[in-house]
Amino acid sequence: MTALLQTDLPDLHLLSRGKVRDVYATSSPDHLLFVATDRISVYDVILNSGIPDKGKLLTSISLFWFEKLKDIIPNHLVTVNIDEMPEEVRQYREQLEGRTMLVRKARIVPMEAIVRGYITGSAWAEYQKSQTVCSIPIPAKMEESQKFPTPIFTPSTKAEQGAHDENISPEKGTVVGKASLKSLMPTISAAQLIGQDLFDRIQTASLQLYTAATEYAESCGLILADTKFEFGLVPSASGGQDELILVDEVLTPDSSRYWPRDQYEPGKGQPSFDKQYVRNALTAAGYRKGLESGPNGNGEGWAIDDTVIEGTRKRYKEAEQMLKSSHS
Ligand SMILES: Nc1ncnc2c1ncn2[C@@H]1O[C@H](COP(=O)(O)OP(=O)(O)OP(=O)(O)O)[C@@H](O)[C@H]1O
Ligand SMILES: [Mg+2]
Hints:
- By secondary structure, the chain is of the alpha+beta class.
- 29% of the residues lie in helices and 23% in strands.
- α1 packs parallel to α9.
- The structure holds adenosine-5'-triphosphate and magnesium ion (MG).
């Protein structure tokens, strides 16, 4: 089984290759072709190895959640049916089937809308240092992986498309992708950056989405520890204020931390269905900051062996099956 690392659709205009998705223009001016490849990125580095079918699993999970959550906020999905896509797209059915969506082209709001229900990862690291998470004061005596009294909204900057932390020159200043807005720009809040009204609408929607998704995931035996949403603006049909919609991928193991509920035990890190497994494998293989371009610093990049590829695939697949199993 081979992984699709890169799409090849010569009759379409490629707009961007993100870490995971290839995005194409189509003859339909308001729409984009959004294709999830099998690439995997860890610590913002795209690995040389792909995970066979990962793009299909991500697409299937996003589709599932778009449908489930559409009453909270509209989203960018137009169709996943290749027969309903512009004609020039259909010739590539074999590459695209199961891993593509036609979506509404949006102006992306430059903020990653992160919601956390449990204290883990960078939030746990910050809390141990300063009793805060993204500068929000947190009750004393929390233990690792514990549930917050209520979910918290911790937005961060969104790097320009295709930009990675390591590519930003010192001249460009301090905006480096993933750090919390507060720590990057102590004098500018997220609300000032995108406008208070938009910030409020995104915060409200994000918390509602997270809460609804958590409840559902629980019923499938999954804890949704945290997640990241992206939002965009599209012209409204009525010609009034632009419409805010949910874009990108939603609630996939790439954008979220899913933990098996039956193994949940606060006080330590949790087994997970997300990229933690690959992160651990990479760290064991010698990955560290500064060696992004490869084990020998020669630009050849990082690869993972077949066992780790299969282990990752198994975890993503299991998350998908658990979500989609017992309910319709
Ligand atoms: N409806 C939409 N309209 C326009 N752009 C979108 C839409 N939905 C998602 N995007 C953008 O498409 C890209 C998806 O590609 P991918 O997820 O691989 O990128 P990334 O590497 O995570 O992010 P980036 O390219 O921003 O560093 C993201 O930049 C995302 O913001
Ligand atoms: Mg992305």
